[in-house]
Amino acid sequence: MMVAIPTFFDLTGMIVITVFSPVLFRTVGFDSQKAILGSVILSLVNLFAVVVSTFVVDRAGRRFLFLAGGVAMMLCQVAVAWILADHLGGHHATTMARNYAKGVLVLMCLYTCSFGMSWGPLKWVVPSEIYPVEIRSAGQAMTVSIALSLSFAQTQVFITLLCAMKYAIFIFYAGWVLVMTVFMAALLPETKGVPLEAMRTVWAKHWYWRRFVGDAKQDSQVNCL
């Protein structure tokens, strides 16, 4: 989990899309000022979504936000890829009609909102909850190190990927979002309302992880002996 969560976080594509959003908006036909304005709008949408997430995360649960956010992000990325393929790739155009360009902006806002409600804040929340107390410091250090390293690597190659894959770059990230959503649905236990001291028991009761994690009570008895 300490490897999977930060890896999937970067493979949502949000980091590079945030950094290079002006380039993306220039690609769909916005001028320089409107491209920068679109980037500002995405940042404000992300901030709003994170604030909303802080109020609903303890009511809806972590797994629900991961799954709902993942499905929404995937649909938005596929829709953006379809629009770009149809109006840029299919017609070999350099810009698209204004209405479709605005549609891309709306879809990107929905994608950003979905990210801000799910993977954005939960990438920090869930790792701080799932690690047992005895390895919490090491786990958090690994999570942050992996996330920053992958973010650096992606920013170095994204422009090359965008030029090579064009609209298919969104299909690439949508495929990873599908993988991470299935992964979370199958392997992440719900941590809502679970104290740190009880996380070992949560892992021990999980259908998959219980084969690797012993019961905390049994471990206590062994330690006493």
TrEMBL record:
<feature type="transmembrane region" description="Helical">
    <location>
        <begin position="105"/>
        <end position="126"/>
    </location>
</feature>
<dbReference type="GO" id="GO:0016020">
    <property type="term" value="C:membrane"/>
</dbReference>
<keyword id="KW-0769">Symport</keyword>
<dbReference type="InterPro" id="IPR036259">
    <property type="entry name" value="MFS_trans_sf"/>
</dbReference>
<dbReference type="Pfam" id="PF00083">
    <property type="entry name" value="Sugar_tr"/>
</dbReference>
<feature type="domain" description="Major facilitator superfamily (MFS) profile">
    <location>
        <begin position="1"/>
        <end position="192"/>
    </location>
</feature>
<keyword id="KW-1133">Transmembrane helix</keyword>
<keyword id="KW-0762">Sugar transport</keyword>
<feature type="transmembrane region" description="Helical">
    <location>
        <begin position="64"/>
        <end position="85"/>
    </location>
</feature>
<feature type="transmembrane region" description="Helical">
    <location>
        <begin position="167"/>
        <end position="188"/>
    </location>
</feature>
<feature type="transmembrane region" description="Helical">
    <location>
        <begin position="7"/>
        <end position="29"/>
    </location>
</feature>
<comment type="similarity">
    <text>Belongs to the major facilitator superfamily. Sugar transporter (TC 2.A.1.1) family.</text>
</comment>
<dbReference type="GO" id="GO:0015293">
    <property type="term" value="F:symporter activity"/>
</dbReference>
<dbReference type="InterPro" id="IPR020846">
    <property type="entry name" value="MFS_dom"/>
</dbReference>
<dbReference type="GO" id="GO:0015144">
    <property type="term" value="F:carbohydrate transmembrane transporter activity"/>
</dbReference>
<dbReference type="InterPro" id="IPR003663">
    <property type="entry name" value="Sugar/inositol_transpt"/>
</dbReference>
<keyword id="KW-0812">Transmembrane</keyword>
<keyword id="KW-0813">Transport</keyword>
<dbReference type="InterPro" id="IPR045262">
    <property type="entry name" value="STP/PLT_plant"/>
</dbReference>
<dbReference type="InterPro" id="IPR005828">
    <property type="entry name" value="MFS_sugar_transport-like"/>
</dbReference>
<keyword id="KW-0472">Membrane</keyword>
<protein>
    <recommendedName>
        <fullName>Major facilitator superfamily (MFS) profile domain-containing protein</fullName>
    </recommendedName>
</protein>
<feature type="transmembrane region" description="Helical">
    <location>
        <begin position="35"/>
        <end position="57"/>
    </location>
</feature>
